């Protein structure tokens, strides 16, 4: 039996779960209900101990850090959700992305939604960081209705 492609939802905040985590939980349930052929995984950085990035090889980091990086690398698509802190994304998310090996997201779709009102976007900051890791296109460049097909395609 073929493995179900995974959509990884990454909650990039160190604060206790609140509105952002609730929004991602609702999005995960919507995907589970609408696309039975897509698995949904989530990493909440408020609940996951990630070691400080210091340039060592991935094998030198703790089990939680290696597991988080492995889940990111194994995902067919990644949704990165983070609050805006001083016009950028949180340091805990940057720290994790600094540990993720270059190319881990190669060819996989990714997104960083914005929910603020008025809209304050972290997209330029995240876009530059993730493009370095992936070299792939941000989901916002295509209609949301194509997401299930794109995740399945990326998993092949």
Description:
- The protein is an alpha/beta fold.
- The chain has a single domain (6-155), classed as 3-Layer(aba) Sandwich (Rossmann fold), CATH 3.40.50.
- The chain has helices spanning 19-34, 63-74, 91-99, 123-134, 147-155, and strands spanning 6-11, 39-44, 77-81, 110-111.
- The chain has a four-stranded parallel sheet with strand order 2-1-3-4, with helices on both faces.
- Strand 1, helix 1 (19-34) and strand 2 (39-44) form a beta-alpha-beta unit.
Task: Please outline what is shown here.
The protein has 156 residues and is an alpha/beta fold.
Provide the descriptors you would attach to this structure in a database record.
alpha/beta; 5 helices; single chain; Rossmann fold
Strand and helix map with partners:
Elements: E1 6-11, H1 19-34, E2 39-44, H2 63-74, E3 77-81, H3 91-99, E4 110-111, H4 123-134, H5 147-155
Parallel strand pairs: 1-2, 1-3, 3-4
Tell me the CATH topology. Rossmann fold
Number of strands: 4
What's the Cα radius of gyration?
Answer: 15 Å
Lateral arrangement of strands in the main beta sheet:
2-1-3-4
Going by helix content, strand content and strand pairing, the class is alpha/beta
CATH architecture: 3-Layer(aba) Sandwich
CATH class: Alpha Beta
Beta-strand portion reads 5-15%
Whole-Å distance between the termini?
13 Å
